[in-house]
Design a protein that fits this description.
Strand content: 15-25%
Number of strands: 4
CATH topology: Trna Endonuclease, Chain: A, domain 1
Helix content: 25-40%
Radius of gyration: 13 Å
Number of helices: 3
Low-confidence stretches: 97-103
Structural class: alpha+beta
CATH class: Alpha Beta
Order of helices and strands: HEEEHEH
């Protein structure tokens, strides 16, 4: 059940990002891709690249995901962990997730 819920969350996040003027894409994992990349990558002129990891229920990022997200932050990207029920518009505007783990390291 969780994969469908996460898929719906990712779809909603993509919708909100695109409506706010972001170019956003779902990152699909595979054998030729680095492990641990967040679910969404988004760009908007004048903003740092934004990576978003979507989580549902009690799911938490894996160790590999946390390490990768920290490396992305060190490279100058914004990285957010977003959960069901978060106010997506506010998260994207403020760059943090109020009801979630927020940016890695917060």
């Amino acid at each position: 059940m969780a994969p469908k819920r996460e898929s719906r969350l990712v779809s909603k996040l993509l919708q909100v990002l695109r409506a706010a003027g972001w170019w956003a894409v779902k990152i699909h994992g595979g054998p030729f891709q680095r492990a641990g990349l967040p679910d969404i990558l988004a760009f908007k002129p004048g903003h740092a690249p934004l990576w978003i990891e979507a989580k549902v229920g009690a799911n938490e990022p894996t160790l590999v995901q946390r390490v990768t997200m920290t490396q992305l932050q060190q490279a100058g990207c914004r990285v957010l962990i977003v959960r069901e029920g978060d106010d997506f518009e506010e998260i994207i505007r403020a760059g943090r997730a109020a009801n979630s783990s927020g940016p890695v390291g917060d």
